[in-house]
Recover the amino acids of this structure.
């Protein structure tokens, strides 16, 4: 089996599952309980928080645990809207955000907030000048993703941060769900970035775990009201085992990051160079420094993406059309639409997404399978 | 730069006349204790300074320990060079390149105890000064208050060069002032008071009251961990846990509410005095600060102090809370102190304790309980531990958890 759908989800590592199992059995107490079992569970949560903070170059009190990327995005955006609605009702985001951001913005629009959606160019990048022009006195939030999940473009987070230095009251949120272990830490840890969203299952931890970074001094309203966990910011009994597993997975993922990024880049380039020799292949992702090392989105003109995905499945190779979330509901890709890709071509899009475990050997097998599938479809079209 | 020795200068000791010898003996004993796990060091005490030969040990961790030994005024890491002027010049330049930024002022200061060395003090100052200004034209020689001082010591065995002087912890060597019992609660104030006692040379033993099951293991462990935080200043500290449950229950049952706190404190003080007498401690230290809480009004202090004639020293008595907190942060006990575990002072705290208790009433209410019997019971169940630097009590799972992460 070749798994090339890592932007959809990653396979949990055995050692991470081992940590989950051990913590779930031996540290099962409620971290809020006063007795020894509670203390021990609380120690696990706090030690995990410290480890994650250290890996993210943050302070432990700036890390809050969530159930994943969708919650993190919802929380930061709605939490900012609630906390800052007295100061303004204007938010800025992009046309290529993950639905967790886009749909949250739509909900806010229904509540009377105004949202500016920044367009992207043909390559999938927003313009910093557009952003500057969109800022108003009543702007309370700028939310821009770090790495686009459909084509892999790395948005100019540091440059946006520089612009926002002049607007210190605006919250700057970066959805960094696709950015872990992809060599973009310096960008997302730009000092002007106030909030970051992360999801555990994108780096070999488990579904249902995630965390946000919230810069010390920045405040958002809680979405989850209740027992006052996470310093009253996010109520709900802590997922002790999931949190510990996530801390471990993050450490393993960021270990030797440069080397892993280089390897993914090499595999990606190898595949891209090969498939672009075929006449009817179109690449949406570029082999360039401003693209993430793990996402390669392409199309075989005239063949629906869904069909190609199933053809590869027949070869025991797994990938997605574009984002896994939208592929089942049959929505067309919003990023490709925003890039002004004609609908006929967008329908043909497929996404290969790598992680550090993929090998050059797998790339070679993929290439052979690609040749077979391509030739087959040419015949059918013939 | 690989340093060859650290020169330690004594502080206030110089003024202590006849006691000098025993003070220096004690200080060097404390230095040896603080550095006991560095195997390759040679410590050579002298009349006015101590030389610690590193023999290849890195200087940083050694200096880190030294910075917590009371009685040291300052110390300087230095490099030993054989008596060859070319080599001395080379090392002097290296040291200056490390210590002196572009354009700063400097001075060479030579001491020559080996009078057989051909260059005298002035000759050495000139030779090195000339060489350095030639190699580093940006440097400016300045005799009064230069930015960087290059110290040169011509000794029999070698020539020692140094540019850095680090301020020591000051105070007096722990132990030179005698032994005392320190009442340690677990709050912010008492660790600071303990630190200040150590700083004046007092060797302390911690006396901590605990009341299971009303207080948790964590409250006891927190007090122990606070003690561990203070051990680097002295080597090790004896921790005496006094079981206080029965006494508190008796007081609660038999004494009017307004006097609960006062009688409790009187019992604590009595017990501390008894422990001090038994163990040869001359004085009691505590962390009381005038007016901070009901038990620390002058009237309360008088009513509580009534049970003993042993001197009580209160190092933080006149400090503001903010000053105490600043000090606690400096010695790294603050974060621990504010951890929310109930201690035995808070669990039986009455809603409205008397802030102006009367001595006669206190004495009268106390007749309602069996003072002697309760004391005997507590004293025969003391738990005594010796606590050493680096010991952890609160998060004993830390290593197990680290393994999982």
């Amino acid at each position: 089996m070749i798994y090339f759908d890592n932007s959809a989800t990653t396979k949990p590592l055995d050692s991470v599952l081992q940590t989950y199992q051990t913590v779930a059995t031996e540290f099962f107490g409620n971290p809020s309980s006063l007795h020894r079992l509670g203390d021990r569970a609380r120690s696990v949560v706090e030690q995990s928080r410290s480890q994650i903070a250290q890996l993210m170059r943050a302070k432990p009190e700036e890390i809050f645990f969530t159930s994943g990327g969708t919650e993190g995005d919802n929380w930061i955006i709605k939490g900012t809207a609630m906390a800052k609605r007295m100061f303004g009702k204007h938010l800025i985001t992009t046309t290529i955000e993950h639905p967790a951001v886009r749909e949250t913005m739509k909900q806010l629009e229904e509540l009377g907030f105004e949202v500016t959606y920044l367009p992207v160019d043909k390559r999938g990048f927003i313009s910093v000048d557009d952003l500057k022009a969109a800022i108003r006195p009543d702007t309370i939030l700028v939310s821009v993703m770090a790495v686009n999940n459909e084509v892999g473009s790395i948005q100019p987070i540091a440059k946006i941060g520089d612009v926002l230095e002049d607007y210190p009251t605006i919250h700057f949120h970066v959805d960094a769900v696709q950015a872990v272990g992809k060599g973009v830490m310096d960008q997302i840890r730009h000092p002007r970035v106030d909030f970051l969203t992360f999801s555990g299952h994108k780096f070999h931890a488990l579904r249902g775990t995630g965390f946000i970074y919230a810069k010390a001094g920045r405040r958002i309203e809680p979405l989850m009201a209740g027992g006052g966990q996470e310093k009253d910011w996010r109520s709900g009994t802590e997922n002790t085992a999931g949190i510990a597993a996530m801390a471990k997975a993050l450490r393993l993922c960021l270990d030797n990051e440069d080397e892993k990024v280089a390897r993914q880049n090499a595999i990606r380039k190898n595949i891209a160079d090969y498939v672009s020799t075929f006449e009817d292949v179109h690449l949406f992702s570029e082999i360039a420094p401003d693209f993430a090392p793990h996402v390669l989105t392409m199309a075989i003109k005239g063949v629906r993406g869904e069909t190609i995905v199933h053809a590869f499945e027949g070869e025991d190779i797994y990938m997605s059309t574009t984002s896994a979330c939208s592929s089942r509901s049959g929505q067309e890709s919003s990023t490709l639409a925003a890039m002004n890709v004609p609908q006929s071509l967008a329908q043909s899009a497929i996404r290969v997404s790598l992680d550090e475990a993929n090998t050059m050997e797998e790339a070679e097998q993929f290439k052979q399978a690609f040749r077979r599938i391509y030739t087959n479809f040419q015949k059918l079209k013939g | 730069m690989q340093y060859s020795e650290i020169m330690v200068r004594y502080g206030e000791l110089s003024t202590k006349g006849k006691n000098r010898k025993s003070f220096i003996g004690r200080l060097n004993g404390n230095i040896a204790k603080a550095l006991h796990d560095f195997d390759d060091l040679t410590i050579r005490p002298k009349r006015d300074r101590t030389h610690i030969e590193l023999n290849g040990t890195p200087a940083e961790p050694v200096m880190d320990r030294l910075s917590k030994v009371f009685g040291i005024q300052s110390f300087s890491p230095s490099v030993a060079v054989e008596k060859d002027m070319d080599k001395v010049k080379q090392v002097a330049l290296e040291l200056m390149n490390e210590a002196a930024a572009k354009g700063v002022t400097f001075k060479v200061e030579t001491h020559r105890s080996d009078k057989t060395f051909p260059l005298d003090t002035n000759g050495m100052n000139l030779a090195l000064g000339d060489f350095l200004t030639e190699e580093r034209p940006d440097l400016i020689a300045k005799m009064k208050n230069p930015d960087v001082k290059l110290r040169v010591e011509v000794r029999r065995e070698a020539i020692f060069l140094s540019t850095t002087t680090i301020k020591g912890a000051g105070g007096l060597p722990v132990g030179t002032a005698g032994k005392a019992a320190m009442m340690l609660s677990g709050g912010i104030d008492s660790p600071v008071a303990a630190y200040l006692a150590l700083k004046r040379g007092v060797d302390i033993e911690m006396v901590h009251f605990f009341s299971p099951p009303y207080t948790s293991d964590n409250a006891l462990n927190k007090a122990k961990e606070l003690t561990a935080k203070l051990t680097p200043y002295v080597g090790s500290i004896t921790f005496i846990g006094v079981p206080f449950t029965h006494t508190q229950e008796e007081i609660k049952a038999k004494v009017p509410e307004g006097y609960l706190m006062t009688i409790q404190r009187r019992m604590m003080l009595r017990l501390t005095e008894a422990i001090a007498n038994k163990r040869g401690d001359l004085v009691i230290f505590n962390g009381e600060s005038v007016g901070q809480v009901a038990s620390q009004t002058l009237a309360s202090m008088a009513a509580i102090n009534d049970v003993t004639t042993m001197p009580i020293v209160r190092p933080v008595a006149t400090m503001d809370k903010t000053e105490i907190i600043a000090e606690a942060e400096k010695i790294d006990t603050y974060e621990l102190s504010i951890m929310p575990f109930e201690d035995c002072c808070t669990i039986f705290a009455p809603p409205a304790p008397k802030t102006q208790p009367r001595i006669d009433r206190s004495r009268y209410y106390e007749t309602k309980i069996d003072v002697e019997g309760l004391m005997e019971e507590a004293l025969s169940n003391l738990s005594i531990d010796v606590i050493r630097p680096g010991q952890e009590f609160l998060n004993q799972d830390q290593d197990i958890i680290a393994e999982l992460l």
